[in-house]
Amino acid sequence: MKETLTKIIQEEQDTQHGKFLTFALDEELYGIEICYVTEIVGVQKISVLPGAPPYIKGVINLRGRIIPVADMRLRFRKEVVPYTSRTCIIVVEIGDCTVGLIVDEVREVTMIPDECVAPPPDMKIGYRNRFIKGIGKAGDTVQLLLDCEQLFKEDEVRVLDQIEA
């Protein structure tokens, strides 16, 4: 029984490998490994949390679950713009933490083979973008592939866990 369950989990991981949910912020395209994504929902009423970091917009009630939401524009230090009908919340699970990522627009699920992913450039000036795991090329399109495990620092994940609890 345990071997069968392990095999099913392994097959599920194999079918998700190389698949990314792509989304836009401004004109830039980003990708998140599909294995982190649980669902995509429209923007809804967000309850503001006093004292939270500026990129944490607050919490939403998603079918009885309280989920913190982070505005990826603010997280990546981009200009704030009003939400539109295309603005979405991508709900992801990072370890034991569930968080919603507010993005301008969800595009598609795309397959990017390992050989089409390059490492992020090494700036050699003491700066490293910890959010970027790689740069993927799908056809003529280039996407910045996010490292979900690095989107939030350990202390930030603890805060998000407390909010969710």
Characteristic terms for this protein:
alpha+beta; 165 residues; globular; six-stranded mixed sheet; 3 helices; five-stranded mixed sheet
| Sheet with the most strands, sense and barrel status | 6 strands, mixed
The global form is globular
Broad structural category: alpha+beta
> Could you state the order of secondary-structure elements as H and E?
HEEEEEHEEEEEEH
Total beta strands: 11
Tally of helical segments: 3
What value does the Rg take, in angstroms? 17 Å
First-residue to last-residue Cα separation: 33 Å
Strand order of the largest sheet: 8-1-2-11-10-9
Segments where pLDDT lies below 50 for 5+ residues? none
User: Helix proportion of residues, in percent?
Assistant: 10-25%
3D structure, described in words:
It is a single chain. The protein is an alpha+beta fold and 165 residues long. Helices cover 18% and strands 42% of the residues. It has three helices and eleven strands; from the N terminus they run αβββββαββββββα. The protein has helices at 2-16, 72-75, 154-164, and strands spanning 19-25, 28-33, 37-42, 56-62, 65-71, 88-94, 97-103, 105-111, 117-118, 132-138, 141-146. The strands form two sheets. The protein has a six-stranded mixed β-sheet with strand order 8-1-2-11-10-9, with no helix packed on it. A hairpin with a 2-residue loop joins β6 and β7. The protein is globular, with a radius of gyration of 17 Å.
SSE diagram, text form:
Layout: H1 2-16, E1 19-25, E2 28-33, E3 37-42, E4 56-62, E5 65-71, H2 72-75, E6 88-94, E7 97-103, E8 105-111, E9 117-118, E10 132-138, E11 141-146, H3 154-164
Parallel strand pairs: 2-11, 5-7
Antiparallel strand pairs: 1-2, 1-8, 3-6, 4-5, 6-7, 9-10, 10-11
